[in-house]
């Protein structure tokens, strides 16, 4: 704009030089009038070299609207106008100044016009672009966005089964196909991976929860894998074993075994072994091993797996089975009874030595034969019936002997009575009947004999009892006679001696009285002997009348009876409390009477007699004892102490018949007890006796007695 | 009192015992009227007036019977039984005097109703004392059963 104005100004200035020089107003005006062609220029003027207005344009324009003097060269904007001053030069000499005033409004209008066109074009292009973009969107963006959506869903959900929808057959369609194809592959791979994973955890679980020890080893037999079963079986934890050589488990008596196994594994193939391993606690353990090589993808052996099963129990069972078999065949072989097994077809499968002997038939001939051969013909049918019934009822054991008397048939045709029991078992679907037979011919004979002997014995017992009863009667009448017939003459001797001494005193010499006295003494002694012997005999045959008896009371009764005998002597009695027991009080009183009167008698030389009665544990027995401080006796005669008529003292020292302690011994033994004594010469004596029930007797009352 | 009346019947087979018993009784002047029989049969014959004593006019039973147990023919316990089971003699006191101290005899004697049971002591002094006391008691002190006690 300014440029075109400047160009116009330059051209006008050039054209104006002549007019100015010549001061030709007309020419000048004409020059300016050419500006009419440019409606933008609203005013123009030429100034002379002095700055005076020379001509103006338009001609009618008032002079006042022009600047005076003109400005220097250049342009300026002034309220929507451009003011331009252009010097008019000629040969370097300034001739004047050209003034141009251009109104900008027409310019703006043009600018608006151009702007409108430009906007129009712009809108047009946008419209076109929209149309194009719409088309493009339909054909490219939407399928791609859909793809992106699918991709997002896939990645978000991890669901590779989602597929993009194919919207067109063009390149985006191809893209969708390619994408879906890719998804399908991923899905397939993911499924394969998942299945692999499942199989892997499945396998891991099998390995982990297996009761067998499952061990992985590398080529050097170092442990790579050690499952819980291995931990349990060998006692080592996985931490302890991983990286360790498997030879740790090797039994010291099989040092080369693991190396051999390793060699065999390296040659390939699966091997089974039964061997012994050693647990962490040192216990040997019998195992069955399955060792197999592990190969990498190229088929190279990179290690081995061992599956070990604890067969200690199985081995033990096998051993037991073997032992049982041996034992069983030993039992069967040595059994006294015939043992015969038959199969369902009645064929003999077992025929032991006793059976050979019983039926007089070697096993080699019996085996495989029907059992009928050993059954008398008349029983065969019944026997088959038994077996069938036996099989049906399913009972495992029944004595057939209970059903009826059975008979067997020896090879020599002899029939004999048997007793049989039968058992039925089913092994692997096979019915096996085992019959155990006893030849009771001998027993029957023996039973008959026993019956006969028993009858004889009974007969003999009866006879003996009768004899004994008779002997007893005889004995009784003997003692009865002794009582009567021995005593009577004694009485007579005593009586007539007395009468003789008194009634014929005058006619007798003095020594006769002495002899008569001797006769009477002997008579008294003899009568005492008879009485004692009768008593002893009576104790022996008298029936016991047991009743609860406080022993202390018996002792008190005896002490009362002894009062007379001990009169005038100094005696110290120490009577401890005694228990109450079941006994015959009359007999038991005789025990105390004898022992206490003995104690009184044999302490006679003592100025102070000390006699104790008590109750002690002695030699493991509870015993009652009577102790005195009397003359005692020599223990070497102790075994004679309780014999009849045994005396340790001369008659002049201590009177007695030698029957008393024998009587005591008999009474104590009748009460299920025993008696013994401890003594020393001049050291006193202690008599102990026990009676049945003394141990269990309630503790005696604790009270002290003295007489 | 009838002079023919027998006060004491001594049943004793042993002549020594007879002599000693009589000696003891006479020494203390007891029982002048004593009859001695030497076995059980004779004792029963006398008491029930039969056999050798069939002629004996019944003057009633004796005041007391001294009875040995061990007697020929019929033993003392059988005599006792007969005496105690017959109403004619039931009331007569019977004193058993025996050598033995057999529990069985004693039990049986008392069961049959013996009035006293005495074991003859060996010592003659004791024997005399017993005979004396017995004689006094049975023949002097004790009131014998009245005749009404003896049905004919």
Features:
heterodimer; A: 707 residues; alpha+beta; Beta-Lactamase; elongated; disordered C terminus; B: alpha/beta; Rossmann fold; 5-stranded parallel sheet; 14% strand
Account of the 3D structure:
The complex is a heterodimer of chains A (707) and B (152). Chain A is α+β, with helices and mostly antiparallel strands and 707 residues long. Among the domains of chain A are: 2-103, Beta-Lactamase (2-Layer Sandwich), CATH 3.30.450.20; 210-310, PAS domain (Beta-Lactamase, 2-Layer Sandwich); 318-439, PAS domain (Beta-Lactamase, 2-Layer Sandwich), CATH 3.30.450.20; 544-689, 2-Layer Sandwich (Heat Shock Protein 90), CATH 3.30.565. Chain A has 16 helices and 23 strands. In chain A, strands 11, 12, 13, 14, 15 and 16 form a six-stranded antiparallel sheet that branches. In chain A, strands 2-1-5-4-3 form a five-stranded antiparallel sheet. A five-stranded antiparallel sheet of chain A has the order 7-6-10-9-8. In chain A, α12 runs antiparallel to α13 (510-541) and α13 runs parallel beside α16 (660-670). Chain A starts with a helix and ends in an 18-residue tail after the last strand. The relative contact order of chain A is 0.03. In chain B, 38% of the residues lie in helices and 14% in strands. The model of chain B has no long low-confidence stretch (mean pLDDT 84). At the A-B interface, α12 and α13 of A face α1 and α5 of B.
Summarize the structure in short.
Chain A is built from 16 helices and 23 strands.
How does the SSE layout of this entry go?
The complex is a heterodimer of chains A (707) and B (152).
Chain A (H helix, E strand, L loop, with lengths): L1 H21 L2 H9 L7 E8 L4 E5 L16 E5 L2 E10 L2 E11 L1 H53 L13 H39 L3 E6 L4 E4 L1 H7 L3 H4 L15 H10 L4 E8 L5 E12 L5 E10 L1 H23 L3 E5 L5 E4 L1 H7 L3 H4 L10 H17 L3 E3 L6 E4 L5 E13 L2 E10 L1 H63 L6 H32 L5 E4 H12 L8 E5 L4 E4 L1 H18 L6 E10 L2 E8 L31 H11 L4 E5 L5 E5 L18
Parallel strand pairs in A: 18-20
Antiparallel strand pairs in A: 1-2, 1-5, 3-4, 4-5, 6-7, 6-10, 8-9, 9-10, 11-12, 11-16, 13-15, 14-15, 15-16, 17-19, 20-21, 21-23, 22-23
Helix pairs in contact in A: 1-2, 3-4, 12-13, 13-16, 14-15, 15-16
Chain B lengths: L7 E4 L3 H13 L6 E4 L2 H8 L16 E4 L8 H10 L8 E5 L4 H9 L4 E4 L4 H18 L11
Parallel strand pairs in B: 1-2, 1-3, 3-4, 4-5
């Amino acid at each position: 704009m300014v440029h075109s104005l400047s160009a116009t100004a330059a051209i006008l200035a050039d054209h104006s030089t002549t007019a100015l020089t010549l001061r030709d107003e007309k020419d000048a005006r004409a020059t300016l009038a050419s500006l009419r062609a440019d409606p933008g220029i609203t005013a123009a003027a030429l100034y002379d070299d002095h700055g005076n207005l020379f001509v103006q344009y338009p001609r009618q324009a008032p002079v006042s609207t022009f600047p005076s003097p003109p400005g220097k060269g250049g342009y300026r904007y002034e309220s929507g106008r451009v003011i331009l001053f252009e010097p008019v030069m000629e040969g370097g000499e300034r001739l004047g100044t050209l003034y141009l005033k251009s109104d900008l409004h027409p310019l703006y209008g043009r600018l608006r016009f151009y702007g409108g066109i430009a906007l129009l074009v712009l809108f047009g292009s946008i419209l076109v672009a929209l149309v194009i973009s719409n088309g493009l969107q339909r054909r490219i963006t939407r399928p791609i966005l859909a793809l992106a959506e699918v991709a997002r869903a896939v990645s978000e959900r991890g669901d590779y089964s989602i597929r993009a929808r194919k919207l067109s057959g063009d390149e985006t369609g191809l893209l969708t196909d390619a994408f879906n194809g890719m998804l399908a592959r991923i899905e397939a791979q993911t499924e394969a991976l998942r299945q692999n994973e499942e199989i892997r955890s499945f396998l891991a679980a099998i390995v982990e929860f297996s009761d067998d020890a499952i061990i992985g080893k590398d080529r050097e037999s170092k442990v790579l894998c050690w499952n819980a079963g291995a931990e349990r079986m060998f006692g080592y934890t996985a931490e302890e074993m991983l990286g360790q050589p498997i030879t740790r488990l090797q039994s010291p008596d099989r040092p080369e075994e693991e190396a051999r196994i390793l060699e065999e594994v390296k040659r390939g193939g699966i091997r089974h072994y039964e061997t012994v391993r050693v647990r962490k606690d040192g216990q040997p353990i019998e195992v069955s091993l399955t060792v197999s090589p592990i190969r990498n993808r190229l088929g190279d052996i990179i290690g081995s797996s061992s599956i070990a099963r604890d067969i200690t129990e199985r081995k033990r069972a096998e051993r037991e089975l073997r032992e049982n078999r041996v034992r069983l065949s030993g039992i069967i072989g040595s059994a006294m009874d015939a043992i015969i097994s038959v199969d369902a077809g009645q064929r003999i499968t077992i025929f032991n030595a006793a059976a050979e002997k019983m039926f007089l038939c070697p096993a080699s001939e019996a085996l495989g034969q029907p059992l009928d051969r050993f059954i008398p013909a008349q029983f065969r049918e019944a026997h088959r019936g038994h077996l069938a019934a036996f099989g049906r009822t399913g009972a495992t054991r029944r004595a057939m002997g209970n059903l009826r008397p059975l008979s067997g048939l020896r090879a020599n045709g002899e029939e004999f009575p048997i007793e049989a029991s039968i058992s039925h078992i089913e092994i692997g679907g096979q019915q096996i009947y085992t019959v155990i037979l006893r030849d009771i011919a001998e027993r029957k004979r023996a039973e008959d004999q026993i019956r006969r002997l028993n009858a004889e014995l009974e007969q003999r017992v009866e006879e003996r009892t009768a004899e004994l009863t008779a002997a007893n009667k005889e004995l009784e009448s003997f003692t009865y006679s002794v009582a009567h017939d021995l005593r009577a003459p004694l009485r007579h001797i005593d009586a007539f001696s007395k009468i003789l001494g008194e009634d014929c005193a005058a006619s007798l010499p003095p020594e006769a009285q002495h002899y008569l006295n001797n006769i009477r003494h002997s008579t008294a002694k003899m009568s005492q002997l008879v009485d004692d012997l009768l008593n002893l005999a009576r104790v022996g045959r008298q029936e016991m009348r047991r009743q609860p008896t406080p022993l202390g009371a018996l002792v008190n009764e005896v002490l009362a009876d002894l009062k007379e005998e001990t009169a005038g002597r100094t005696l110290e009695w120490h009577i401890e409390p005694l228990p109450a027991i079941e006994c015959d009080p009359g007999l038991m009183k005789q025990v105390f009477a004898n022992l206490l009167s003995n104690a009184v008698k044999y302490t006679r030389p003592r100025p102070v007699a000390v006699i104790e009665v008590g109750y002690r544990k002695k030699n493991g027995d509870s015993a009652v004892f009577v102790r005195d401080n009397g003359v005692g006796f020599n223990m070497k005669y102790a075994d004679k102490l309780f014999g009849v008529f045994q005396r340790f003292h001369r008659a002049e020292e201590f009177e007695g018949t030698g029957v008393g302690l024998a009587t005591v011994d008999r009474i104590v033994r009748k009460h299920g007890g025993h008696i013994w004594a401890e003594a020393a010469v001049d050291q006193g004596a202690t008599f102990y006796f026990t009676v049945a029930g003394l141990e269990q007797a309630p503790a005696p009352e604790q009270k002290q007695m003295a007489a | 009192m009838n002079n023919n009346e027998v006060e004491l019947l001594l049943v004793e087979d042993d002549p020594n015992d007879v002599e000693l018993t009589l000696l003891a009784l006479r020494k203390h002047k007891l029982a002048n009227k004593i009859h001695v029989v030497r076995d059980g049969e004779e004792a029963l014959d006398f008491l029930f007036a039969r056999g050798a004593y069939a002629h004996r006019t019944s003057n009633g039973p004796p005041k007391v019977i001294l009875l040995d147990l061990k007697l020929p023919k019929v033993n003392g316990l059988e005599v006792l039984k007969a005496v105690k089971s017959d109403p004619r003699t039931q009331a007569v006191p019977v004193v058993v005097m025996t050598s033995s101290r057999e529990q069985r005899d004693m039990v049986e004697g008392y069961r049959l109703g013996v009035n006293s049971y005495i074991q003859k002591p060996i010592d003659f002094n004791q024997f005399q004392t017993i005979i004396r006391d017995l004689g006094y008691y049975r023949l002097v002190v004790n009131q014998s059963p009245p005749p009404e006690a003896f049905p004919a």
